[in-house]
Design goal:
little secondary structure, two-stranded parallel sheet, 2 strands
């Protein structure tokens, strides 16, 4: 994308209320771009370089982001329902409160990503790398997590009803028992899981109120 069409050639387009609906931005270099609140509805961002970009509050509904690099990007509160994010790099990205219902995240790199309160209902997270991801109070009901890597992920108070797992995916995880009542898990798949009651979580909390594992 050529930002020279904006005043002073700045990449901060927030004040322009950028309307990029349906734009073809495949393989564009948007590293560090400030696209807060931008309209990227159905935009093609395949392979785009968006490292460190500010996309907080942006509308990316229906956008294509195959193999895009969003490492360290800010997507807090962004709308990403149904977005195609296969293989995308979201390492360390902030997706807190993002709307990702039905998003296609197969093989996505989400190590260390912040997904607090994110809406991931019915999302396809097969083979996604969620190691050390913060999923505090995330909505994961009906999500497909087959083959996902979850070592060290924080799933405290996450809603996992109806989510699909395999036993090896959840080794070493700490999950709330009440959030797994309707899981798609066989009895033998739960033998090695550790369930903590709300009381035990309280005793393990740090001063900031977060669970300490």
């Amino acid at each position: 994308m050529d930002f020279s069409r904006f005043p002073n050639g700045k990449t901060d387009v927030e004040e322009q209320k950028a309307n990029l609906e349906g734009a073809n931005l495949d393989w564009a270099n948007l590293e560090g771009a400030k696209l807060r609140g931008a309209n990227l509805y159905w935009a093609d961002l395949t392979g785009a370089k968006l490292q460190g970009a500010d996309l907080s509050g942006a509308d990316l509904t229906g956008a294509e982001l195959y193999w895009a690099n969003l490492e360290g990007a800010n997507l807090e509160g962004a709308k990403l329902e149904g977005v195609k994010l296969e293989g995308v790099n979201l390492y360390g990205a902030n997706l807190s409160g993002a709307k990702l219902q039905g998003a296609k995240l197969q093989g996505a790199k989400l190590q260390g990503a912040k997904l607090q309160g994110a809406d991931l209902r019915e999302a396809d997270l097969r083979r996604a790398d969620l190691r050390r991801a913060d999923l505090l109070e995330a909505k994961l009901s009906g999500a497909n997590l087959k083959g996902a890597l979850l070592s060290g992920a924080d799933l405290f108070k996450a809603n996992l009803k109806g989510a699909i797992f395999k036993e090896e995916d959840l080794e070493e995880e700490v999950l709330e028992e009440e959030d797994l009542e309707e899981e798609d898990l066989e009895e033998e798949d739960l033998e090695e899981f550790e369930f903590n009651s709300s009381e035990s979580h309280e005793s393990e909390r740090d001063n900031d109120g977060r669970p300490h594992f």
